[in-house]
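User: I'll paste a sequence; please echo it back and then give the predicted structure.

Assistant: Echoing your sequence first, then the prediction.
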Amino acid sequence: MYRADAARLAIELGTLAITGGSKALDADGLDVALLGRTSVLSSCRSILTTVTGQRPGPESEYTRSVRHLMEAPVINLQRELGSYPTTEAQTPLSDRMTAPPTDETALAWYNAAKHAELTSHDLSDLLSRLEDGHRWTVVADVAAVARTVYVLDGHLLEAAERLQSPAADALRQSATSGLPYAAEETLVLARSGQLPDLDTIIEAPSATMPVQFNGPAAAVEAQSRLPRQLLDAEDLSPEAIGITALTQARILAFAAQRLSTDDPFRATLAADVSNELRLVRANDPQLASLAPSDHKAMWQSRELLRYVEAAAQVDPTTAAGRVVRGSLLAVVDRAPDVVSALVKATERQLATRRWAVSYAGDEPDAPMWGIWTEALEPPRMYTQLQRAQATLSPDRLHLASFPALPRYTHEPHPHEALADVQRTRPRPPTPGRRNVGLDR
């Protein structure tokens, strides 16, 4: 997930900046660091291009000046990133993944490389769901990361010069880059307004690939993807619908229990929906699928069950418990879309004659198995899903949106986590000295 990976990237870079461990890297560790540096800078360039929709012109058209820096800091940050000195690692990330480094500092750079690659990749699905405020949050994150890379280049230069690495030339050139100034101005501009947490995005994603559970943020993304997984599937078995419904019943029952004190409104809503969904039968003998089923929703439901099992072990009074609470609030707010998708998906399977229905024992003249028509009673599963949907009246959902949602990702955004990473320079004995050097 972009939000979680960006936060972890910031933690790795912030730790490197604070400890200064990069100054003492050996040759292999420096190669890992150069790999991380390349990945982070590439991610910054890609993300800014994606979120702004702009590509700076050739460097020959760019006149660096204070005025340009002040008037258009974001586009100038893109230009500075584009012209920032590059370094090359001897071993690619794919090879490093087979044997990650054991040195603590090198491992931090290796993790930074992985998270940088993931943030750039994950933003593509998130892009269509970003409002303007969220875009400024992403820009602020990139600016904070870019500024931190500039600081870390000073640390890497010490190691490169000691090891007589060819990368020393590029790292030395970066000292005179306008990158930190463009990043500072971009941060000032971004922070002049609200920077909403990306956890507040509620629009459903377009991606349908199931999310593997690795924390509360992944659980919320999984819940967000379920409606599209259900609605985009051409063939869904009654078992897939039933398992998804019963998973929702279980996760909402857990949410009702955990939120009963802090958010009784959402807790009651979750309990009411859960009580109806738990009456759906996963293996309903009345229904049979006539075609192989899409399994994305079932796979995603299994991952959500893993989330419930893990969350149940977390003490609600701890910091981790508060993060779980935030994720449960977000899961409950996305439940109405899942229930609606369950109803619509069931309607489509019946209307397009993808399910066989049995009324044996219900109606004397009914065939053992047949295709459902409007002249017949709706199957039990469909009726029960409609009852669950009926608990979610528009007025009730409108009221439920009033309580503010906390973020459910425990780690802060990069622009928050890296706020204290500052450039430092050795101060001369007197302010009147003209040449104070180019140290970071």
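The chain has a mean pLDDT of 86. The radius of gyration is 27 Å.
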